[in-house]
């Protein structure tokens, strides 16, 4: 018996985060017990818990998925907490966990500074020498550097994070980070040094109007080193006019274009005490808005994995190219000892064409790295850029290029992997991994559309359709909290309730009817769908509290457009983006009318607002938005459904939305399902759906009598299909169904990413339908689930496990001769409503005992068996 996964606001031991009202969560792992009977939480400022700041007492109403701590917190304070759990078979006390507050409302002692020189393109090093005259007890660094920063203390790097202070709408808020530098500073002389790069704040970035300085054109640093001495006194060393500056060895850095380093300009020991900085330049103060500063919400971005190149390729064009064997995001680190002033030049790309290096699909992004050697041995990697790539062209290397000299650094937000799926089909298993790698590559602080070309932005539509899969794959709660906070900030700044197409907006326009204005259906639904998915997966009401005004404002924005007709037929919409049933081969909008999609989502979002309101105890608003949803559905039927129940639009996505979003009366639902089946038959059982329809297609089929067709679509290996990509060697999800043609050549070049996770939404179907693990809105956070696996003989077996907010679930099935075997595991203090279809109750065996003798209540109807499974492991078999 043990307590694990102890978190505050879904982060393990958070240091310096924006905490608000802290929510504590944990998971109890127990053998031989099924039910939590009571809990007790204690909080103290010391690990010995002798002097308690809070004691809940033994309570029966406490839920491990989330307990809101009723405490007023002080700034810059560490709080230790532990939990005592009583079960029906023993008790256990947790290890000690902690959370530490940031500055909160404290004013800053440090000031914003910048180098004193006039040239704003020069990348600076900033440093300050200082003396500590007493013995140090602890030290914290509170810091923000713009565009991006890396800090060092006494020659050692502070932390393991990259791309701080991270990517958000800097005109609305700016994050600062907190680092524990105890042990890095000492009594006596010390130096703190900071390196700055352009990043999203200052570098070339944007969608159509890519330009430098979207948010600012000047490097800036703000920091405070707060030192507490053993005698109880403290001291603050802040950024001020006494700092010094010098040009960095980084000549240029840019998210899209890469980085240039000149080792000849490297200042050895630049952040150490031995360096003579007498010839360094002065700094000056810079006017910045301190009110924009907030404690961090972004979880760390780190090097999460390392890969070695699988081979070195010598192309027909005499190029030397490294193949990483995997489309990844980050960079390669290399070992080099080259003659002085020799230039090592790397170019990054996703694919080879005719056996040669290729990067035309990156558009204007140069995706390069240039290193100028000083003649000494070096270990080299970039500081302020990242690349989306599988292949690297190497030029200027002295001697033979050896794969062992290169290491691929896989960089993404430090999300914990939570789910896994395995089937009898290796190509399906590769597809699952492709979706996961797409998530890794596009979850670098912001859920981006793609990580390689001159875009890399938080497109809301991509984020919305993939969010369900994302939450099955990884623990995404804290990650999406930050993204949605930024979304609400941008929405509030615009002021109309409109949700922009990308978050942050990076200067994109808003408020009109152009393609950059925001307010597109399915894209703007990130404001409603993602919070709801987080609530389902993590049982976290704080996300609904945080985002409710945003959710409501968005639906109200649409309501202002409908002139009381309850149809959304105004403005620009992306439609069923990149569907294959559009007017032309490369028509991106698909064949489903945009007003049908928009009105469907209008109804769906209104109902989500109603549900959120009900959960938050806002009954008046719950009734209002539920009624609005019903009115929209009625208007939808009048506009798009005949009196006899015929849908006016014969596209797969139209049928899918109607069924999934419950837009028609029950008496017409069967006709919609038959329409979908007939459309698939007409198209020889090939899917035609785009970003919108694909995310729901197989779910609708499996949940409405056509499970076999869902498997047929999944397992199709010909274009268009998921496995078509896998067959052509894909290691991530493509932007287009035909990003590569059957001969391996690129299709359309203007918009063609090979790492674009939207179509990876099929993985949610694998968890929910293939393996049957479904969270219930009545019991969010997987406290109780609907366990309804839907096997099909087109696969021999499938098994999924997911480590949820409630604990580890497992669900699997396997065909063996004339039997179907199931395996289920239900975590402590959880339940599953089991639904087995096409099951023979007379032959069903549970853990070696016949069903009628096992002792669990069950119901049988039309060869469907229903029962409730409590904590435990179950092996079930039935004849078929």
What does this protein look like?
This protein is an alpha+beta fold and 880 residues long. It has 15 helices and 44 strands.
The overall strand count is 44
Helix count, DSSP H or I runs of 4 or more residues: 15
Based on secondary structure, the structural category is alpha+beta
The outline comes out as: globular
Largest sheet: 10 strands, mixed
CATH level-four homologous superfamily name of the domain at 113-248 and 267-298:
Galactose-binding domain-like
Share of β-strand residues = 25-35%
The helix content is 10-25%
Look at the structure and give the CATH class of the domain at 113-248 and 267-298: Mainly Beta
Radius of gyration: 28 Å
N-to-C terminal Cα separation, in Å? 39 Å
CATH topology of the domain at 113-248 and 267-298: Jelly Rolls
> Which stretches are poorly predicted, pLDDT < 50 over at least 5 residues?
510-515
CATH architecture of the domain at 113-248 and 267-298: Sandwich
Instruction: Kindly report the average pLDDT value.
Output: 97
Main attributes of the structure:
single chain; 880 residues; alpha+beta; Immunoglobulin-like; Jelly Rolls; 10-stranded mixed sheet; 15 helices; 31% strand
Topology (SSEs and partners):
Blueprint: E1 2-8, E2 23-29, E3 36-44, E4 52-55, E5 67-68, E6 78-87, E7 90-93, E8 97-100, E9 113-115, E10 124-132, E11 136-146, E12 148-153, E13 156-157, E14 174-180, E15 188-197, H1 199-202, E16 220-229, E17 234-238, E18 244-247, E19 250-254, E20 258-262, E21 281-285, E22 293-295, E23 301-307, E24 311-314, E25 320-336, E26 343-349, E27 351-353, E28 356-358, E29 368-372, E30 378-380, E31 387-395, E32 406-413, E33 419-423, H2 426-442, E34 443-444, E35 446-447, H3 460-473, H4 477-494, H5 526-538, H6 541-561, H7 594-615, H8 619-640, H9 652-660, H10 666-682, H11 691-702, H12 707-715, H13 722-727, H14 762-770, E36 773-775, E37 784-787, E38 797-804, E39 807-816, E40 819-836, E41 845-846, E42 849-850, H15 851-854, E43 858-861, E44 864-879
Parallel strand pairs: 14-22, 20-29, 37-40
Antiparallel strand pairs: 1-2, 2-5, 3-4, 3-6, 6-7, 6-8, 9-21, 10-15, 10-18, 11-14, 11-16, 12-13, 12-15, 16-17, 18-21, 19-20, 23-32, 24-25, 25-30, 25-31, 25-32, 26-29, 26-31, 27-28, 33-38, 34-35, 36-37, 38-39, 39-40, 40-44, 41-42, 41-44, 43-44
